């Protein structure tokens, strides 16, 4: 376990000071195209703004929203420095509103699924004791609440935020995973025209013109899982299977533990090579021609590793089932701790449309560590060569 902690701390090192300081980054317009993904902190909003309630003429905000992500934080607002708060999120692709006011906590979920990859017009507004959510000009949710302990007169400041919350997650009535791989455009936030403060850990990236399901690796960064957190062994005969579908080139995956490292990567050209390092034997296997649709099946047996039904490594000295249960690093897209030269050469570039471990879909938002450049839930439909251009909506 110490090995896992050391590697993750090494990868997170450049971000630790930023995460602790929570300082604001650049100021950006809330009306343009905003990518909610690509930042290190989970709960800190990627951007926020505030105003005096006396300057607000209408508690109404609307914006266009697009995602393939089933769960995450979208829009947040509060008054009284977070004593009264509201958050709009997705759960199973369906809108969910949670409200905290005085002694009341409310959670309501309903309406159509929004994670279909299409643009939807969302409007959130306050109507007295009710909060209303409209989707494409149709009312989807209405939440009403009243507390005898709450003050009817609104005064002080109102705060708005995107992609996170400004209050402690412990206040949630129904917890959720906050990461949101989505894009927002054309926002009108109350009647405010002032710029928003962006979180310093957020990396501005354009939204893809058109998207499809999958996890996109742009040739930078990895996603790391602790195998003890993944589905385990069912039967020794079947072993543990990792299935990957998509189009890619570069390092597909690596498996690491103390004194052991296995790397499955495609080297330059059209020949794919699996590398088994640290004194273990080498092997080779054709895995995925660059940029062409492919399926990879990586099977872990008690004393061997198998790629697409072909044994790649056999050793009686290692018990892979025990190592998996106790915790190894399963990394998609590269090798943790690789030199900068190796990283630049070997990082995965492409779209992993689906990753299955023991038949269960793996969500990169649940990774032990995921680089900010990696998109968890969407891939561009453009060809790989077109990805170098400046994609705009």
TrEMBL record:
Disulfide cross-links: 351-378
GO molecular function: steroid binding
One of the record's GO cellular component terms: extracellular region
Keywords of the record: Disulfide bond, Glycoprotein, Lipid-binding, Repeat, Secreted, Signal, Steroid-binding
Entry annotated with the keyword Glycoprotein: yes
Transmembrane segments: none
Protein localization: Secreted
Superkingdom of source: Eukaryota
InterPro entries tied to this protein: ConA-like_dom_sf, GAS-SHBG-PROS, Laminin_G
Record domain Laminin G: where: 35-378
Gene3D superfamilies per record: 2.60.120.200
Keyword Signal assigned: yes
Residues in the signal sequence: 1-25
Major location category of this protein: secreted
Assembly and oligomerization: Homodimer.
Record's function text: Functions as an androgen transport protein, but may also be involved in receptor mediated processes. Each dimer binds one molecule of steroid. Specific for 5-alpha-dihydrotestosterone, testosterone, and 17-beta-estradiol. Regulates the plasma metabolic clearance rate of steroid hormones by controlling their plasma concentration.
Name of the featured protein: Sex hormone-binding globulin
Source organism: Sinocyclocheilus grahami
């Amino acid at each position: 376990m110490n090995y896992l902690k050391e590697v993750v701390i090494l990868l997170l090192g450049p971000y630790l000071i930023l995460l602790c300081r929570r300082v604001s980054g650049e100021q950006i317009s809330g009306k343009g195209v905003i990518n909610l993904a690509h930042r290190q902190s989970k709960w800190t909003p990627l951007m926020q703004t505030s105003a005096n309630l006396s300057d607000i003429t209408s508690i109404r905000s609307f914006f266009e929203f697009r995602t393939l992500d089933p769960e995450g934080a979208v829009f947040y607002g509060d008054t009284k420095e977070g004593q009264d708060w509201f958050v709009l999120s997705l759960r199973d692709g369906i809108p969910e509103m949670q409200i905290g006011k005085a002694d009341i906590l409310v959670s309501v979920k309903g309406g159509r699924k929004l994670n279909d990859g299409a643009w939807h017009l969302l409007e959130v507004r306050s109507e007295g004791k009710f909060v209303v959510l409209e989707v494409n000009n149709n009312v989807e949710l209405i939440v009403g609440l009243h507390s005898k302990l709450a003050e009817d007169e609104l005064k002080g400041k109102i705060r708005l935020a995107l992609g996170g919350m400004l209050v402690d997650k412990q206040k949630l009535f129904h917890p959720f995973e906050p990461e949101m791989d989505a894009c927002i455009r054309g926002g009108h936030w109350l009647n405010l025209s002032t710029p928003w403060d962006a979180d310093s850990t957020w990396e501005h990236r354009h939204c893809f013109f058109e998207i499809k399901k999958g996890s996109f690796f742009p040739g930078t960064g990895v996603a790391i899982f602790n195998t003890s957190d993944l589905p385990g062994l069912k039967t020794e005969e079947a072993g543990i299977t990792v299935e990957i579908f998509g189009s890619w080139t570069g390092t597909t995956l690596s498996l690491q533990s103390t004194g052991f490292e296995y790397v499955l990567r495609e080297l330059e050209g059209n020949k794919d090579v699996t590398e088994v390092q640290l004194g273990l034997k080498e092997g080779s296997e054709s895995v995925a021609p660059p940029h062409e649709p492919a399926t990879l099946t990586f099977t872990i047996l008690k004393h061997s590793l198998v790629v697409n039904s072909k044994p790649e490594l056999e050793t009686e000295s290692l018990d892979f089932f025990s190592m998996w249960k106790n915790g190894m690093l399963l990394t998609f897209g590269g090798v943790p701790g690789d030199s900068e030269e190796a990283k630049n050469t070997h990082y995965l570039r492409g779209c992993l449309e689906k990753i299955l471990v023991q038949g269960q879909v793996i969500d990169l938002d649940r990774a032990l560590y995921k680089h900010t450049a990696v998109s968890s839930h969407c891939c561009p439909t453009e060809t790989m060569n077109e990805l170098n251009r400046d994609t705009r909506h």
